[in-house]
Automatic annotation (TrEMBL):
Annotated ranges, domain HD-GYP: 139-335
Organism listed in the record: Massilia mucilaginosa
Gene3D superfamilies linked to this entry: Hypothetical protein af1432
Superkingdom of source: Bacteria
Protein name (record): DUF3391 domain-containing protein
Higher taxonomy: Bacteria, Pseudomonadati, Pseudomonadota, Betaproteobacteria, Burkholderiales
Length: 406
């Protein structure tokens, strides 16, 4: 049986099934292992991990601790309540924005690559070349955030570092917009998102692209990148305080367990806290050579749980409404047995988006693509519901091929 327990309840002899944190937080080479010493428990606590999942069938039990299923049910109920609140209506259809979004994705990735190369050579960042890209991303988000955000969910190991920065910029702009922030603040936040990982230009490639867990020494080098990025951006005299703050503090946590300054609640700025959520969300949903990305739905569930300690709970909930429980581009299984791709959120219920169905899993055949509005009843273009998100790799499909009809 799997149970969720507080880190203070851990004892040698318990079997860790899941450390319940993002992969860049914990100091262990694996997620599942038998606790053999108090030192291992101290390392878990020191890493800012507050609760873990234990397997009582492989180690010691904890009486009266909730099962993993019970905690998931509690989280699910909270997400249902969050999902029932309004979202922002788009100005153009997804199909209209996709071609423009594809161009922005390619150009922005190339720009970040150039920025990283210049930083590695000791050059100052030329904001005149970066600013127009942030403006293009912002305009795309204003037209239809699902197009660019959906397109950026697909990354490969060769361009992950660059597309991650583009994703953080895009998501942060959308987040600011959904929270009603003014135009200049949104732009400055987007600039910070695009440049937040500039310090990784100084991390050796063999560490940055290592196909496995980092050693303590390697992790210490990676943890220098916020400060290094901050120092690099200071070379550009026109850089503002918001991009500098986001770059330096996007790995800080509300409980003080982050880095580089171990700032806690009350000292980390609002935008840096927002950037922290966005950064983790994009990282844990991406496939890397050393870990499989979570579905967006599962990542949001994790962020909701981590918001008890690491993230501002209100910001975490607002981010969920911003991106949607099932973001545009998510492959989903419907109760009818049909596969579909989410093409638009519902205005008031994020659990009932519009889905473009294209495959019948019960008959194992492709079907004529059809848009299903899950918020509508049977006979009115609806009458179905999402059972779970699905892996595109499992079904060998590219979700982006099935959203152009939106």
């Amino acid at each position: 049986m799997l149970k969720k327990v507080d880190a203070s309840q851990l004892r040698p002899g318990m079997y860790i099934h899941d450390l319940s944190c993002d992969w860049m937080t914990h100091p262990f080479v694996r997620n599942r292992f038998l606790l053999t010493s108090e030192e291992e428990i101290r390392k878990i606590v020191a890493a800012g991990i507050h609760d873990v999942v234990i397997d009582c069938g492989k180690g010691l039990d904890v009486d009266h601790a909730p099962t993993l299923e019970e905690t998931r049910q509690s989280t699910e109920q909270a997400l249902v309540e969050i999902a029932a609140r309004p979202v922002i209506v788009t100005r153009t259809t997804l199909g209209e924005e996709l071609k423009r979004a594809a161009v922005i994705r390619q150009q922005a990735s190339g720009l970040v690559r150039t920025v990283m190369q210049d930083a590695r050579l000791g050059k100052a960042i030329e904001l005149d070349s970066v600013s127009p890209m942030v403006e293009n991303i912002t305009e795309s988000i204003l037209r239809n955030p699902g197009a660019l955000m959906g397109m950026l969910r697909i990354k490969n190991k060769d361009d992950y570092t660059f597309l991650h920065s583009v994703s953080v910029c895009t998501l942060l702009v959308a987040f600011c917009r959904s929270r009603g922030m003014d135009t200049d603040t949104t732009y400055q936040a987007g600039l910070g998102g695009l440049l937040h990982d500039t310090g990784k230009a100084l991390v050796p490639d063999h560490i940055l692209n290592k196909p496995g867990p980092l050693t303590d020494e390697e992790f210490a080098i990676v943890k220098k990148h916020p400060r290094d990025g901050y120092d690099i951006l200071l070379k550009s005299p026109e850089i503002g305080p918001i991009p500098l703050d986001i770059t330096l503090h996007h790995h800080e946590r509300r409980d003080g367990s982050g880095y580089p300054d171990k700032q806690g609640e009350g000292t980390v700025s609002e935008l840096a806290q927002m950037a922290a959520i966005v950064d983790v969300y994009d990282a844990i949903t991406a496939d890397r050579c050393y870990h499989k990305g979570m579905s967006a739905a599962e990542a949001l569930r994790q962020i909701y749980e981590w918001s008890k300690f690491h993230f501002h709970p209100t910001y975490a909930q607002e981010f969920m409404r911003c991106v949607g429980i099932y973001p545009v581009g998510t492959l989903v299984m419907l109760e009818s047995g049909r596969l579909g791709v989410v093409i638009a959120p519902h205005e008031t219920n994020l659990l009932a988006p519009k889905v473009n169905v294209f495959f019948n899993t019960r008959r194992n055949v492709y079907i004529k693509p059809e848009t299903v509005d899950l918020a509508r009843p049977v006979g009115f273009g609806g009458g179905d519901k999402i059972v779970r998100p699905e892996s595109p790799q499992k079904w060998n499909v590219d979700p982006m091929q099935f959203i152009s009809v939106a």
